[in-house]
Amino acid sequence: MTKQVEAGHYEFGRYMSLPRWNSIWQQLTLVSTLGGENILEVGPGPGLFKTVANHIGFHVETVDQDPELEPDHLGDVLRLPLNDSSYDVTCAFQVLEHLPFDGALKALDELARVARNYVVISLPDAERTWRFIIHLPKFGERAILLPRPRLSRSIHKFDGEHYWELNKRGYETKKVISAFLKSRKLDLVRTFRSFENPCHRFFVFSVAD
């Protein structure tokens, strides 16, 4: 995997927007519901997920090819330098789109190989939405995401970082999920988009026996 950004890309004022904070909250919430204590994060970025997760009782180790990010393990997601089934949960948040799609499938294989129980990833979702908050008597507030209608899907062009994105032409969510599950030891548990940051779609996979 080719290095695409320098460590300075993750400077707080440039990188940590309010929607990104919400995505980190989603990451922590997902991991906390899966029951694992030993977690691997591939592509740690500024390291916030690891810092907070370790503070609330999890043990997180990181892998990255960039030594400037000070990962616990220096390595490539396509060839993780780790043993089979060595972590309860493996994670890669906003990582796989930085690889050509065939490479993303190989990276998912590696995440599944190293995981005992679950693989959690997030990907950029290009499908635009309208966001509504409605108040229902006796039920309180409900947040709703509605896809915006479009005549055709846009074609993704490599921008120096992303090789592909969900719901651009050829990468519809159902098609990508089908490719993820084909001949892999994974079952899809759930997928969703955050109301506060709908351009990030999360996937939780269980590792099949």
From TrEMBL:
Q: Where is the Methyltransferase type domain?
A: 40-116
User: InterPro entries in the record, alphabetically?
Assistant: Methyltransf_11, SAM-dependent_MTases_sf
Q: Which Pfam families match?
A: Methyltransf_11
Top-level taxon in the UniProt lineage: Bacteria
Alphabetized GO MF terms: S-adenosylmethionine-dependent methyltransferase activity
Q: Could you identify this protein by its name?
A: Methyltransferase type 11 domain-containing protein
| Native source organism of the sequence | Novosphingobium subterraneum
